[in-house]
Amino acid sequence: AQRVTQPEKLLSVFKGAPVELKCNYSYSGSPELFWYVQYSRQRLQLLLRHISRESIKGFTADLNKGETSFHLKKPFAQEEDSAMYYCALERFNKFYFGSGTKLNVKP
Amino acid sequence: GAGVSQSPSNKVTEKGKDVELRCDPISGHTALYWYRQSLGQGLEFLIYFQGNSAPDKSGLPSDRFSAERTGGSVSTLTIQRTQQEDSAVYLCASSQGTGKAYEQYFGPGTRLTVT
């Protein structure tokens, strides 16, 4: 069965510090992975997707098939990055989400 | 244009009652998804509709849950004989298609509380 694990419920960092939000998955095939973000009082929205190899708002995520991970990284966190972040895996048109990590960037 | 809308935003119901949750997708989006998010948990896939194809109901947790999509647009998620464990936020999302290539646009959710 597909499973997405985000081991940290809460991650607090200071502004300007690097941040890494962890995501591990269990899936035997070639996964398609995503990061979604939910800012305070806003809707859940797509942040980035593996297939696009993109960097959005300074965030990047690299798929590591050996470690079955898709960690989200940003070299210098900003206060406006404070939000809930969800990692998701797509298989056969269905999406499986992790339980989320709340990122708190302190001034 | 308008995004995905859901109604009601909050619903409190007594155990054993039936509830209907509504989702209005973005116009022209052929795919529509329903998810459930229980407290402290991630989003749990329930069902998706794609165009005129039969829906994928594989995530519905029991036969008390059903959903329909009329005219390829509005969708209704119905929960019969609600139980306390049904308390959650129910999210709807729509996209131009299904799968990894299409971005899902989420609604604000309906918070269901079963007392």
Q: What key phrases describe this protein's structure?
A:
heterodimer; A: 107 residues; mainly beta; Immunoglobulin-like; 52% strand; B: 115 residues; 4-stranded antiparallel β-sheet
Task: Summarize the biggest pleated sheet of chain A.
Answer: 6 strands, mixed
Largest interface: A-B, 22 and 28 residues
Individual helix count of chain A: 0
Any idea of the CATH class of chain B? Mainly Beta
Give the count of structural domains of chain B. 1
Q: First CA to last CA of chain B: what distance?
A: 37 Å
Helix content of chain A: under 10%
In round numbers, the mean pLDDT of chain B is 93
CATH level-4 homologous superfamily of chain A? Immunoglobulins
Give the amount of beta strand of chain A, in percent: over 45%
Secondary structure tally: strands of chain A: 11
Regarding quaternary structure, what we see is heterodimer
Overall morphology of chain A: globular
Largest sheet of chain B: 6 strands, mixed
Determine the CATH superfamily of chain B.
Immunoglobulins
- Which CATH architecture of chain B would you pick? Sandwich
The CATH class designation of chain A is: Mainly Beta
Radius of gyration of chain B: 13 Å
Q: Give the rounded overall mean pLDDT of chain A.
A: 92
Order of helices and strands of chain B: EEEEEEEEEE
Structural class of chain A: mainly beta
Short description:
The complex is a heterodimer of chains A (107) and B (115). Chain A has strands spanning 3-5, 10-14, 19-21, 24-26, 32-38, 45-49, 60-64, 69-74, 83-91, 94-97, 101-106.
Explain what this protein looks like in three dimensions:
The complex is a heterodimer of chains A (about 110) and B (about 120). Chain A has about 110 residues and is mainly β. Chain A is about 0% helix and about 50% strand. Chain A contains no helices and 11 strands. In chain A, a hairpin with a 4-residue loop joins strand 7 and strand 8. The model of chain A has no long low-confidence stretch (mean pLDDT about 90). Chain B has no helices and 10 strands. Chain B has strands spanning about 5, 10-15, 20-25, 30-35, 45-50, 65-70, 75-80, 90-95, 105, 110-115. In chain B, the strands form 2 sheets. In chain B, strands 2, 4, 5, 8, 9 and 10 form a 6-stranded mixed β-sheet that branches.
